[in-house]
Design brief:
The protein is an alpha+beta fold and 323 residues long. It has helices at residues 3-43, 68-138, 144-168, 179-197, 215-231, 288-298; strands at 44-46, 64-66, 177-178, 200-203, 210-211, 238-246, 249-255, 302-309, 312-320. Its main location: membrane.
Amino acid sequence: MSADDDRLVVRRAALRVGTLVAGASAVAIALGVGILVVVLVSGARAEGGGRRPGGAGGGIGDRFVVDLDDVLPWVLGLGMAGVIVLGLVGWAAARWSVRPLDDALRRQRRFVSDASHELRTPLTALTSRIQIVQRRQSRGEATDEPLEQLRHDAQIMDDVLADMLLTAEGLAHAGTARVDDAVRTAVATLSSLADESGVTVRAEELPDITVGVPAVTVVRMCTALLDNAIGHSPTGSTVTLSAAVDADDAVIRVQDTGSGIGDEDLPRIFERFARGTESGRRRGFGLGLALVREAATRYGGRIEVERSSAAGTVFALRLPLAR
């Protein structure tokens, strides 16, 4: 949302709150006054006589008196009731008025946590690339290749941030992506991390598939799935990526050889901040798979655990084919 949109939301909330307070106050006062008038009329008597207002013989200009002892409890009771009612109205109005602020703070916290997670993997990859460059420089070796990879990783970070900013504004920008290019980009981004973990990443022969999802979003999803697979695979194991067409969907599969997902973790594996058993490597924040699901759903796709056992887990990312 833009700043103008935020101001419009605040103005509308203020108008709703003002209308609520004014309307509730008017109703409370009208009811209180009405009850008080009924009490006064019913308890009044003509001055010097026993006739009540409106009774036979009661003419215009007659004076009536009211016993204070009869009316005072009603006045005090209605006053206290009015204070309570207006207090409840003020409490409800205050909650209503801060709702846009609460929504804004929730979106802000969500964006910060998502950005921290999404940029964490590229930053780790950048650090690893820098270490490679330093080692090659110290040995007098060529550094052109790792420097080019550094530039590529920095561009990915810029693309990811731009995509997240659009997502935070509630926009799903149009675009298409070649699955093979997205998978290769994800593999290249995490190659140094895989090497550090002693995990081999293997991409099977990928068919020529184009999906109706922007390339940066597909790369984000593939990177998150591959990062999750590397983080839960033992040293010396292999993570395999493949792709195929199933009806109107492209299916990207990421298979690891880890210990699998526990039965207690499986129902909440795609929830935010849900974490399974740690592998002893980089600590996860439980956001990667949740972000993959949100991104896939936004473009009409889905992510699922195709199978999981002590021999490993297979995640299947289904995305709609480009029309």
